[in-house]
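G.,

No rush on this.
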Amino acid sequence: MQSYQCISSTMRLLVISAILISCATSQQVQDEAWVRLVMAQLSPRVGEMGAKVLNSKVEPIVQGALSTLSLGKKAFKFTRIELGNAKPQISNIRTHKAAKGFDRITVDCDLMYLGDSDIQVSILGVSSGVRNVQVSGRARIVLTPTISELPFVGGVQFFFLTKPEIDFDFDGAAKIATKLPAIKTKIKEDLLEDMSKEVIFPNRVTLPLSWTADPQLIWQPQLAGILGVRLRTVAGLPKKGSGGVRSWVGQDKPDAYATIGIGGDERTTVVAKNSVQHTWEEWYEFPLEEVDGHVVEVNMYDRDKMSSDEFLGYAAIDIKTFSQVKHLFNRGTAAKQVLSGKQTGTSSGQLVSKQAVPTLAVSQPIQTRLVEATLESVTGRKTKYAKITGKIGVELAWQPLVPTPGRDTARLFPGSTAAVLSIFIYSANNLAKYAGASPVPIPVGHLPSAQATVTVANYTQTTGVSKDSQQAEFKQGFVFKLGKDWKTQTLTIKVDDTEKRVSSFGQKSWKLSELLGVDIKREIIGLDAKIASQTITMSAQLRFPGIHTN
């Protein structure tokens, strides 16, 4: 996240924009016209940010991508960056209704950029231009928590709800034309992988705006439940082609599998060998803050041992409407107008036609629903199949998280998660002595670089390192999905000095059964009984997939 600090001033302006959006008129056209006006004035700052990100972030990623293709570690370099006058297009803005028990404002929008940039690069020593840069995806801004003083919210979180589509073209590089398709594919893959770690759900960029708001509500997602997803069936997939040895021996069908994802959180099914239809039994679990607004994306592939896997089709399910939504590239005239910057005065709400459907309440369970969808082709996806065909059946169910465990028979789908433990470490305080049989003061003149380690069941997570301070600020949260044996597990939080071999400042442990019905809310807790002043500030809560009784 620190690699994105260069966007902080721009994000502060966008926060103000988002607040005004949520308070402004509900007429979609006026909202979007206003946002376009704001973006026009922010455009120079966005351009400055973009140049910095390309140099500091994108160039190393591309160099790494080319290195994996055995093209050298320094095979790529930006030689000129002029991002042009094209402005990001923000459309289809939607502000969510307040969710009971959760202090946040949630705004979704389509974010699209069609660049008119003049970017020059050196690839393998050959000068080339990068043209027609396109980035598009569904994005979310979360303002949390609300406070009674300026700026009225404690912080802002920004992330893409879906993996954005990235595309670009090289020109003027005829000498390496045969290598460009593989180079382009690898660059796009690595850029998306890096974005998934930073700014695609469940990851996000977080910007604190207030020193008085609860840091946990600023930095840690407020989980509301678990979405269960099962890819039940696929049928009608294309064969690999007519004739040939494969058809003679009955091996002319794809080795089909799917990735099922919400944003960057993806799961992969088992491979159905030599099959144009298949049924899967596995359910996959996705912890969410809001069920409303998310899209379950299914990408079908043909496993290929000799080269990269072939694309077999895409389908997306809108959880709000339990219906298929087309890929952004396939939405027809309205989407093309937005992508080309030729949007008319008509509201781009045409892109999502279910605006009147009521908001889904996160506290209410959703019984298993089966949604059928047709696989569609997507421009730019690698495939040897002349025509994408086939249909899938996807089952969805939503299980809220509640304070007390219920009966297994109350589960709406067969999931492996029986409990969800959320931990937030604010700080470690007064770190003056190393713990042990006889506590030892830290060396004179030494300032510790502390790190907290959280262990529960077979999982271990660590905070970042708070350098050179006896008052270690962490402001970091973790979520653990636990099985049926959660009652027998122990939670342990330990704080160490990363610069010393014998470095423990102490630790605190709880049996998880002790946390049942007893939330820890920003409490100061001792790390070692012999060093009373040495503490951590933390929160912890245990929740369970179930049904609210009130």
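When you get to it, here's the other one too:
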Amino acid sequence: MSDNKQGFDTLALHAGYDPDPTITLGLGQGAPTGIPVYRTTPYKFKNTEHAANLFKLKELGNIYSRIMNPTNSILESRYAQLEGGHPLSGLAVSSGTNAIFYAIINLASEGDNIVAARALYGGTFTIEPSTIHTVQPITNALVKFVDAENPQNFVTAMDEYVLLVEYFIIAVSLVTYRLFSFFSYSKTRAFFCETVSNPALEICDLEEISGLAHENGVPLIADSTFSTPYLCKPFEFGVDIVVRPCNGEKVSSLTKWIGGHGACLGGIIVDKGEFNWGAGKHPLYDEPDTSYSGMRWGHDLPEELAPLAYILRARTVPLRNLGGCMSPDNAWMVIQGIETLSLRMERHCENSMKVARHLEAHPDVAWVRYPGLPSDPQHHKSQKYLKGTGEYKAYRNLKMTVPIINVVTITLIHYAGGPMVVFGIKSANAKETGQKFIDNLKLFSHVANVGDVRSLAIHPASTTHSQLSEDAQRNAGCPPDMIRLSIGIESIQDIIADLDQAISVANFLQHMEA
């Protein structure tokens, strides 16, 4: 974990990059305050010993841009510190889906499994509750999906095998006595969930799920795309690994609210650095790695690097061998977005709360889901995990000595999370009406993405979750009439006006066809 006590906004502007004015660039000394983009493939070594030490992990440094790049390193360090992690605990990759894939294959192999919440983004897994599906054809590891609203379901879904071992034989005269021992073990390697699910907006009880994971010797991996480290820091609730996409995919997404502009792809994995990978529960960390000089990742690293075992293996095995690296140009663009993350999230959340309240009172709206609403079933968890998702008011009374003014009441309104709203329109054919609503939006963009500064909308049942049956969609928290809104930072009156006119037109067209 990071010991950095600087505030969130200070880290967002300065973490990971300290310009060195003593280096010589161009005509002389003086380092740029703006972060450089290092468009290079290889790096020149100091000598043969230096090169050998880098490859043996005896020291850290740049080898090749498929594995590391100075611009990417600044992003990795800055984002890891925003999550509360070690400055070296981040790994940027080419997309959010790539981040999830690497996070899983970095701890599970053929025959292993993970237990995942069933309410996930449609592009993350093909969700079919109570069924086991192949998540990665390379390793043939499996995923078991459970209802995360009851955290105990994760433990129930873990497999357990009993191994009968004959460990001693005693021969007495002509009679042989065989002694047996029974050992139980599990091939479940991790739990996986989303902090706030897409699009159901279910909030996982991270503290409870991580506690159960640790009791059973496995880490909890959390995709925190919908919350960002500004609203929720999963490490504070026991999560071991955070993944986030930088684009329109969902995992460790940097290009959603983190980048904010929808102009680049990228994902990131951040390791808390406290899980014991050498405890015998993860063979990939206990057995010699033939792809890396027989390294036992949970045992053989130098003491100062041991807390980074997971992220170092992710960099030097999956990333090195599969090559899903992030370009330095994309890393640079994400960094620009990070600098204004807190400012944008406040406006996203403020606008989202106003939209949710407006839709809740709208006569043509059948239902609204937004964790910031007191009526929402996830509201109690939003108070704990999303800084209260929505608004809260704090009152402070100041007694004055001026006779005319005895008490001054200052009202502070803080909007702290919840940049997404989902709802359904009242209609005999709600699915078709929802599609007509999408087709008649003017300000909102109809795209398969979230987290842009611009307002976005989509009908999940016919797009992002269309590969699922209607029953599977409902089990994933995605009913056929659901409309997903990613609320931008435009003027709120314009956002609401666009929603109202689209609802009106959709209902009119539906009535005309009836």
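The chain has a mean pLDDT of 84. Residues 67 and 315 are 6 Å apart (CA to CA).

Enjoy the weekend,
O.
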